[in-house]
Amino acid sequence: MTEFIPPGTRFHALPSPFPMKRGGELRDARIAYETWGELNRARDNAVLIVTGLSPDAHAAANAGNAEPGWWEAMLGPGKPIDTDRWFVVCVNSLGSCKGSTGPASVDPSTGKPYRLDFPELSIEDGADAAHEVVRGMGIERLACLIGNSMGGMTALAYLLRHPGSARTHINISGSAHALPFSIAIRSLQREAIRLDPNWNNGDYDEATYPESGMRMARKLGVITYRSALEWDGRFGRVRLESDRPDEEPFGLEFQVESYLEGHARRFVRRFDPNCYLYLSRSMDWFDLAEHADGKQADGDVLQGLARIRVDKALAIGASTDILFPLQQQQQIADGLRAGGAEAEFLPLESPQGHDAFLVDIERFGPVVADFLAGI
Amino acid sequence: MTEFIPPGTRFHALPSPFPMKRGGELRDARIAYETWGELNRARDNAVLIVTGLSPDAHAAANAGNAEPGWWEAMLGPGKPIDTDRWFVVCVNSLGSCKGSTGPASVDPSTGKPYRLDFPELSIEDGADAAHEVVRGMGIERLACLIGNSMGGMTALAYLLRHPGSARTHINISGSAHALPFSIAIRSLQREAIRLDPNWNNGDYDEATYPESGMRMARKLGVITYRSALEWDGRFGRVRLESDRPDEEPFGLEFQVESYLEGHARRFVRRFDPNCYLYLSRSMDWFDLAEHADGKQADGDVLQGLARIRVDKALAIGASTDILFPLQQQQQIADGLRAGGAEAEFLPLESPQGHDAFLVDIERFGPVVADFLAGI
């Protein structure tokens, strides 16, 4: 399958072999990244952003790519993550298809795409790979590590596996382990892809891309990324215009259905289905309790978190998030505090659900700006 | 397609032709029903139950069928709906496949199943059909009309279209119109069925039943019928036993996935996909605002509700219901009160989501019993 790499993307070669947490290793693997601002002489003004499942490394416009990025309002000169002060790095996750090595990449040992021969992917592998990029820049210690959504998991794994690697941390709509509602949603998304005959156990090409499965997965994603409250006000029961009737039996009729359809159209064929499956499963597997002094039992998440050492941390999320609910950000703050950090939990009354950090900059921007101003 | 009719089911022939709200009519149609208790001489002790999307008329064991029903704990001698006092009728919804006429039934004009030639189905049609069953028993006025979930919609349509037909009303986890989150979920369930090649525009048989689509639809249903809170305690991150590994790539691994799988297995091939599509869409279409003095605009739901005349009403629901959220039951109580009813809204702190009325009898039972005791 094709990869989807924005212009201006830069690459960092990972050590080869690069060992994977659950076994196996990658050879000649790479991580895609972009940067904003200047690294100062002391190399102590670096901020790393680790992302959710689908974004690339192009968080905002920069010299290499003037197109707006997925966090354009948050990142730039004078913006909440102020690139006049900070040297900001954003990495594309290991396992993705936006430039970093993943199941859609060519396996150097065969000359063909990995597909399902890619080794099992863990959140921890993504964290280790991101850490390699930062170390490759000669940065010993980040000023701040920022993780959103899945990136909130990646950031916690990064901090735990690489002690002393960051002074501060902002965890945005993240979690220290996956809970059953989120697992159920992601399991269903994966099942939709697996049930699509075109998926064919991962062996598809552009002509046989499993479009139906990816449409379903994306629509279910969007439903859980936003909130019922927002949609009541935004769509209500408004119908599609009558000059665009959907003649299919049981076809689209309401605006909310058309909104989901638009999201699905913009996503399918722009993301590799195997990469989606690998990244999705890595979130289900993630459990910081595994790192709680060798114990793996449930309920040790706080112990796992308490093993992390940062000076200062902020955990924020949206009150309407059903996928990474607020109590998970509260848990992160509690656990980091138990580990000695000055950690704050700030629940934000945003109507925009899990995706609020991408769109509700009015609420998320000042909180991030204030935290960074204070370090 | 096969229909699925419990033993002991009784049938009421609808007037022929039976006109449908959105156009068309049914000939020789029937409604399946069951009864419990005895109708008194004054014929004033009748309680009618209208159901959610999937149940049949067998709400509890009775003389015709000793098997436990879907509301066994709620209905019977000495139970919250006490059949020593009340004559209880439960109808299978028009459009279903559990005995009442629906898309899986034979069209008398062709001798073949209706499939997609069944006329467009509205909640109001189901209400009119249920009203015919009650009138056919010589009951002019119900002591109480009880509607659950979709049945909560049916009950409101019944009361509005048949003034004076019930003294009191209990609306359980119902709503006066569908909101966009619920529409989105149901739209995705229908899309899963429509995308299954076996659905074939409604033209399948037992050998080509669209099992994949129905599995997806059911799993998504179960996810939205329960609550994240309940699942945290019930499943946590517990894995399946290691002696039952799922060897499929990205196969089941967590207990919550196996739970969904079990629900799907018990549902597919026991419900007709076309009936599912028709009933699902009827919920999306339902909007009591249409009945607000001829106006059809959004926001007139309260006016529609205020046109209903009952003496006393109770609207209850679960705090964790994401499909028919509590504010919808509050709206029902507010609207009925504006219409002159003594109407109470009782939010119940149940962890079990939309399905709580089926399983959390500890909370729902006493409230229903108290209301019925007071009339």
List the main descriptive attributes of the protein structure presented here:
about 375 residues; Rossmann fold; alpha/beta; homodimer; two-stranded antiparallel sheet; 2 domains; Rna Polymerase Sigma Factor, Chain: A; 11 helices; 14 strands
Summarize the structure in words.
Two copies of one chain form a homodimer. Chain A is an alpha/beta fold and 375 residues long. Chain A has two domains: 256 residues, Alpha/Beta hydrolase fold, catalytic domain (Rossmann fold, 3-Layer(aba) Sandwich), CATH 3.40.50; 96 residues, Rna Polymerase Sigma Factor, Chain: A, CATH 1.10.1740.110. Helix content of chain A is 34%, strand content 16%. The first copy, chain A, has eleven helices and 14 strands. In chain A, the strands form four sheets. An eight-stranded mixed β-sheet of chain A has the order 1-4-8-5-11-12-13-14, with helices on both faces. In chain A, helix 1 crosses helix 2. The radius of gyration of chain A is 20 Å and the shape is globular. The termini of chain A are far apart. The mean pLDDT of chain A is 95. At the A-B interface, helix 3, helix 4, helix 5, helix 6 and helix 7 of A face helix 3, helix 4, helix 5, helix 6 and helix 7 of B.
Summarize the structure.
2 copies of one chain form a homodimer. Chain A has 375 residues and is α/β, with parallel strands linked by helices.
CATH architecture descriptor text of the largest domain in chain A: 3-Layer(aba) Sandwich
What's the shape of chain A? globular
The SSE string of chain A, one letter per element, is EEEEEEEEEEHEHEHHHHHHEHEHH
Q: What is the residue-averaged pLDDT of chain A?
A: 95
Query: What structural category characterises the helix and strand content of chain A?
Result: alpha/beta
CATH superfamily of the largest domain in chain A: Alpha/Beta hydrolase fold, catalytic domain
Measured as a percent range, the helix fraction of chain A is: 25-40%
Point out poorly predicted stretches of chain A. Answer: none
